[in-house]
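Example record for the data management plan.
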Amino acid sequence: MIQVSGLHKTYRSRGHDVRAVDGVDLHVREGEIYGVLGQSGAGKSTLLRCVNLLERPDSGTVEVDGVELTALPGRGLRAARHRLCMIHQHFALLSSRTAAGNVAFPLEVTGVPRAERHRRVAELLDLVGLTDRAGAYPAQLSGGQKQRVGIARALAAGPKVLLSDEATSALDPDTTRSILDLLLDLNRRLGLTILLITHEMDVVKTICQSAAVMRDGRFTEAGALTDLLREPGSELARGLFPLAAAQARDGESLLDVTVSGDSADEPLLSALARTLDIDVRLLDGGVQSLAATRAGRLRIGVTGDPAPAAAFLRDRGALVAS
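Corresponding structural encoding:
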């Protein structure tokens, strides 16, 4: 659905060139929720603006739904942008319009007849759970309600792709979870492809099937979460499932075990202890549900030679590091 190849974007700041996006390749499959994770200044927002051509990249190509946006002139680009919509960190609502009026605005701009506008606005407000707040102004809405209005407005033109620019970072944890649940529901019900940027690992953990870590304008790793979790040394895996430092006892070796998919719900540690007749001590970690799979990391202590224990776990689908 989204194919970005060799993307570069450089700014001039205080007499110096700043490479905001430095050779990024990105592939988001149709119907996927893809997260780009990174700290402030990593280049995430610039990348997102380049995807919808609000910022024109210096080089590289952006293709959405089979159309190369970077090759289009102004009028063609404006038409192609109907395939995409965007929601923002600070909602970007019109304070002089009600919730219904904000959702109706893009429909008015594109000349949708009044009766059709009213029907579509009612449908969208119902979709985001705000039917009873249609007449409320932004100042009368909570942060979560404002973001729901922003989502409804973004969906007004029936896009195939939703771009999310830190859409939950201004919200409290409970409201963040409700917005993420809504995005996941829209993804499943509408087949909506979602590309989101965030600095919050919990956002990736909650709804993303794939993710990339961005630093200094580049992706340091990218791919499906199920694949990244099985990559030795994966920064994302460490961030999703951090393990506390631990000290081995005499005659004991420490192993870090990553499990995903079927192996995540198997009684691996009890089977390990029984089969090899060794003591197995769980020091830290656990298994959780991600959007795409069940997965987890464990730090364990095993008595004796750790090699047979590591081989036993690997044979059962775990990634093991000492």
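Summary line stored alongside the record: The mean pLDDT is 93.
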